[in-house]
Design brief:
Blueprint (H helix, E strand, L loop, with lengths): L2 H18 L3 H5 L2 E6 L2 E6 L14 H17 L7 E11 L10 E10 L3 E9 L5 E12 L4
Antiparallel strand pairs: 1-2, 2-4, 3-6, 4-5, 5-6
């Protein structure tokens, strides 16, 4: 299966989530912006559902944004029938994010895609282009049964 087919498959799944109102991304407002082979860009406009008791965007929300983007970048590189799940996730938070109308943009790229694991990295920037967080993940790959 080609990368363009996998990208269209992913777009279909994401669109279904939006139209059915299902999924953590939909509930938080995580939205796909770009998909290409080995790369995904998602954005999030902070809203009341994304903040913590200190009125800043919750670290788990930023982590979800990153996990979604990195998983999507990996998915675009997988052969037909191969599934994945996040095995390990590492995030470094650089600065707090207030709910001030500044869009968060996460760009993720794959680093390695093997037979049993894949790795990716991501960076999140605010509306001023300042780095908010960066991190990496390892995904476990599941080959289709023969």
């Amino acid at each position: 299966m080609s990368a363009s087919t996998r990208i269209e498959e992913l777009r279909t799944v994401l669109a279904h989530g939006v139209t059915s109102g299902q999924g953590v991304g939909v509930s938080l407002g995580v939205t796909v912006q770009e998909l290409e082979e080995g790369r995904a860009v998602y954005f999030l406009d902070p809203n009341p559902a994304t903040i913590n008791a200190m009125y800043v965007v919750h670290g788990g929300v930023i982590t979800t944004l990153m996990d979604t983007a990195m998983g999507s970048a990996v998915f675009t590189r997988l052969p037909d029938g191969v599934l994945y799940t996040t095995l390990e996730l590492k995030v470094n938070f650089i600065r707090t994010v207030r709910m001030d109308g500044s869009r968060l943009t996460c760009t993720a790229t794959t680093i390695h895609v093997g037979r049993s694991t894949a790795t990716a990295e991501a960076r999140v920037h605010d509306g001023d282009g300042k780095l908010v967080a960066h991190g990496s993940c390892t995904c476990m790959l599941f080959q289709p049964k023969a």
